[in-house]
Design a protein that fits this description.
The protein is an alpha/beta fold and about 200 residues long. It contains ten helices and four strands. A four-stranded parallel β-sheet has the order 1-2-3-4, sandwiched between helices. The longest helix has 18 residues. The model has no long low-confidence stretch (mean pLDDT about 90).
């Protein structure tokens, strides 16, 4: 079975929890686990409001404006009444042409699950000191402070830990819209080291 794992965002929360319970995980790499429930509580309310109206484009813009990632700068800086229709059209076109993998239209409604994961994660900061795995904490230098601050806190709590910051990247650095090669290079170095 695998003993090394990488996860991003809410996936990093799940991975942190798994690593606390599963000693077979020897090396854990976490990219910005969003452990600040206060910010995401407001996002959850705003997201829920626009999702109840069935406006997926507006829901996506709501997420982007909170995360404020540099990857989608056009969508997060223009007013939502302009960008939401553009995103809805983009989603429609994508769903017509892409039949093999999930589209943005498929993924936006699943963000509700991310919010549930984030909401139930506050206890992990207190428990992280029990982590046995070698841990690599990754963050983007252009990510919002509420995404970087959990990394700073975890650096003082996790026993065997190191940190890498990608100065020119945001929260989506590991995604194809960011710089996945940059992230992969650090992951390869970390995972290849002797335990």
């Amino acid at each position: 079975h695998a003993d090394r794992i990488f996860a991003l965002s809410s996936g990093a929360i799940i991975t942190l929890q798994a690593a606390l319970k599963e000693p077979a995980l020897a090396k854990v790499a976490l990219y910005e686990p969003p452990l600040d429930g206060n910010v995401f509580g407001k996002l959850g309310r705003d997201y829920g409001r626009v999702m109840s109206k069935g406006n997926l484009g507006r829901a996506f813009i709501t997420i982007l404006k909170t995360i404020d990632d540099t990857t989608f700068s056009l969508f997060r800086t223009l007013p939502a009444f302009i960008t939401a229709p553009m995103v809805n059209l983009m989603m429609l076109a994508q769903s017509k042409h892409n039949k093999e993998e999930p589209t943005l239209k498929d993924l936006v409604p699943t963000f509700y699950h991310d919010l549930i994961i984030i909401d139930g994660s506050a206890h992990l900061l207190a428990e992280a000191g029990q982590l046995k795995a070698d841990t690599l904490l990754l963050q983007g230098g252009k990510s919002q402070p509420f995404l970087r601050s959990p990394i700073e806190r975890l650096m003082h709590i996790i026993p065997r830990v190191r940190q890498v910051t990608f100065p020119e990247q945001g929260h989506m650095a590991a995604d194809n819209t960011g710089d996945p090669q940059l992230v992969a290079t650090e992951l390869l170095k970390f995972f290849k080291e002797d335990k």
